[in-house]
Design goal:
With 132 residues, the chain is α+β, with helices and mostly antiparallel strands. 21% of the residues lie in helices and 11% in strands. It has one domain. The chain has a 3-stranded antiparallel beta sheet with strand order 1-2-3.
């Protein structure tokens, strides 16, 4: 079943082409708390061009599953991966949460019909615009 998913879908972890590329040219860098694995390309000349970096998601491929430390490394904001620098979030940084849009855990404002609410009444001093 896993082989079929890798052959026919791109959103379930890695495809066969990605697996082959990772096997041939990838160096394992580390893994985050969610089980995502991070790689960088083996390069013949370090520093000549920006090295290619990528993530293989555990399960469904969703970009918001990448935490802030790994995000910075993937986008070349830092040259040192979080496990190599003992990354500790700053005191003002919130814990990572994935994007819940489109799921049951998504935010719905008061009065949203998605949660069975009734529309909020307009304030008494509000007048709707009407064309002349």
């Amino acid at each position: 079943m896993r082989l079929l998913k890798q052959f026919f879908t791109w959103w379930n972890g890695e495809t066969l082409a990605t697996r082959f590329y990772t096997w041939r040219k990838g160096n394992y860098v580390g893994q985050d708390d969610l089980g995502n694995r991070y790689y960088k390309a083996k390069s013949a000349v370090p520093g000549s061009i920006p090295e290619r970096r990528w993530v293989i998601y555990k399960g469904y491929s969703e970009g918001s599953q990448v935490g802030p430390g790994w995000h910075g490394w993937l986008h070349h904001r830092t040259d040192v991966a979080p496990p190599q620098e003992n990354y500790v979030p700053r005191e003002w940084q919130k814990p990572h949460e994935e994007n819940l849009t489109g799921t049951a855990g998504a935010y719905h404002p008061p009065g949203s019909i998605a949660v069975g609410g009734k529309p909020v009444k307009a304030a008494a001093d509000y007048q709707a615009w009407k064309p002349q």
